Amino acid sequence: MSKTKKQIRFNAFEMNCITHQSAGTWRYPGDETLRYKDIEYWQNISRIAEKGLFDAVFIADVLGVYDAYKGNADAAIRGAVQIPVNDPLQLATIGASVTQNLSFGITAGVFFEQPFPFARRLSTLDHLTKGRVGWNIVTGYLPSANENLGSKEFPHDERYDYADEYMEVIYKLLEGSWQDDAVVLDKERGIFADPAKIHPINHKGKYFSVPGIHVCEPSIQRTPVLFQAGNSPRGLKFAAKHAEAIFISPTSIEYTKDSVRQIREELIKAGRDPYSAKIYVLSTIITDETDALAEAKHKDLLKYVSEESSLVLNSGWLGEDLSKYRLDDKLTNIKSNAVIGKVKELSEGKTDDGKDWTLRDLIRVAGIGGLGRKVIGGQKKVADELEKIIEYTDADGFNLAYATAPGTISDIVEFIVPELQKRGSYQLEYSSGSLRNKLFGKGDRLGSNHIGSQYRILNNDSSSLSVSNITTPNLNLSGEQNAV
Fold first, then answer.
1. Predicted TM-score of the model (pTM)
2. What angle is formed at CA 167 by the lines to CA 232 and CA 93, rounded to 5 degrees?
3. Which of 81, 171, 354, 379: CA 20 to 30 A from 113?
């Protein structure tokens, strides 16, 4: 097989919980996910990912419980299915403190964070990580989250209308409030910043009213790299408008190719270069020194898969109580307000052996690594398959879900990364700078064809005062103020 010219990219797909994508494998010998509350656990994962030259540790999140299955959260609680779940944002600074180049993608939902304080959190993370942070924009799919926040449940497509305005507020705060030269740092005269170059955003829209200035000085990237995973028609339109990294989770290589094609076409429709966003395919790699050892490892892992926990996860993802189906029922009649693209694929698509999807197939495939692809084998077999996927589908890399943590990622770094490097299909060292520059090699800031760039204010804005014209109060002992 000829070597692919495209460099394959990896993210470690994690979540601040016990059960993320693999149902029940927290019980597997050597798995450490029960240590998810420990700083050292996340530091170790970060070090392993950086050793493997991964782009990022991408941290998923939900603010709600998986209660679609049987109409309650009992099964989710029994199996630790994304409950308990801790906040993802702190993990970026924990991981960045022990790494130099690895980046961190954090997930936050637009319905659960007001844009004004959230913009401050983004700037803070970008400062503390030195530009090694991205934000996964989600609209959410668990009704329980909205209920606990007292929010109404928006129809699927209106969720993205809301998110579009949310992004407009974020861009105005991060890109347009402070000019690049607003911070002057004149210690002699006691002038930190020129107030004439810091602007209120005066936003008043359908969903938000935000009049003031951003409360943080500009960070390296200003706007962190924007991640998105929408795969419904409306979600794709939103992703093409905003995202710089897009995650997809098709179960077949044909659906992967079709998804990538649709994304590239939507990027063009949005006025962007079709390769202005990196596309990562959700996958789980089970590997070892030989094919036989990898197959044996996979077979052993399957013994620990919880059927109930798998049904809990998939009921949440599909927005349907799967307890009412029999194992051999076909998944052709699901109506969902959740992950619509995945519902469409399962109801209209075929399994790898050409059959209609049944609930039994869903449990078998999704028990380890969720609804993404499974690649099982030794170094050569896995590398061949990864290159084939990238070459055939035109995707850029893989969002790697784990079967066990940190075992799965450690195996990939030990066995697969060196093989891909030997073939010329994987980077030998990190590029310099921020996450955005590492991904695209075009600097730290949003590209000029990205919608966020239109909110920038030029440094030569005629309404701004020069530093020499700034006046500061001179306090004397009498308390009177004289301008200087």
1. 0.90
2. 100
3. 81
